[in-house]
């Protein structure tokens, strides 16, 4: 048995078993590794950090996509930043209201390799005629995007290190505000509250977004293979509140089968533990 091991904090490591290493490459942006896992199926890592595996990807991809559609069931134009494995696009493309999806992934190799090794998330995404796939830096893309051109922006990024750093800056969040429509929604990777390095990232990201958007919330999901298993997304909007504006019936009418998300869980997810609430308020 082989073990893939990741350092979660100074004093904590996480390991999962794999049968064989499938592929390894250093792209111009990052180290990419694919493994054939035992319990977790095929998984891939970027710069030695777990990105996606076949067993728990549904949790992440349900939660990055569906809460926004249950708050505004009339989303037509979507911008995905990052998301090279295709899982976020896969979930967005399930909505018949969606007319256009622009996905801006900095590293084409992630997308191409996921098509080969991770069809569960990547298959069919490129073929959908609503998809506009761009291989570029997300920050550069939003700087040049038109005012009020998207209903939804989903930031499906790596952590705020290396290529992902620009996606956690005030400059980026300001551009997101500008390119979102009046009832637009921004969902962004909000890190994790538990280990201190991630909690610091969480607080910094939240403060920056709070200074720009009038409505900001944070919601949680449980991801077994991400550090501590307790992860967050940020929800920001100019006008929509994810609880007051939740449209349970409209979302149920879509008839989507989801393995993690439901509209009762939606309400629970925005109700954070006290230590997380306090950390977000204190900053
Ligand atoms: N689910 C994962 C997680 O949170 O661990 C994230 C998915 S992973 C596919 C994130 C993607 O963001 C990577 O493919 C990476 O190349 C891309 N990315 C990082 N920085 C980016 C940037 N500045 N612009 C566009 N894509 C970026």
UniProtKB/TrEMBL annotation:
Stored SUPFAM superfamilies: S-adenosyl-L-methionine-dependent methyltransferases
Superkingdom of the organism of origin: Bacteria
Keywords: Polyamine biosynthesis, Spermidine biosynthesis, Transferase
Gene Ontology terms, MF aspect: spermidine synthase activity
EC number: 2.5.1.16
Positions bound to spermidine: 61, 85, 156-159
Binding site for S-methyl-5'-thioadenosine: 30, 105, 137-138
Pathway: Amine and polyamine biosynthesis; spermidine biosynthesis; spermidine from putrescine: step 1/1
Keyword Transferase in annotation: yes
Residue positions of the active site: 156
InterPro entries for this protein: PABS (IPR030374), PABS_CS (IPR030373), SAM-dependent_MTases_sf (IPR029063), Spermi_synthase (IPR001045), Spermidine_synt_N (IPR035246), Spermidine_synt_N_sf (IPR037163)
Ranges for domain PABS: 1-238
Ranges that cross the membrane: none
Signal sequence extent: none
Catalytic activity annotation: S-adenosyl 3-(methylsulfanyl)propylamine + putrescine = S-methyl-5'-thioadenosine + spermidine + H(+)
Protein family (similarity comment): Belongs to the spermidine/spermine synthase family.
Quaternary state and interactors: Homodimer or homotetramer.
Functional description taken from the UniProt entry: Catalyzes the irreversible transfer of a propylamine group from the amino donor S-adenosylmethioninamine (decarboxy-AdoMet) to putrescine (1,4-diaminobutane) to yield spermidine.
Protein name: Polyamine aminopropyltransferase
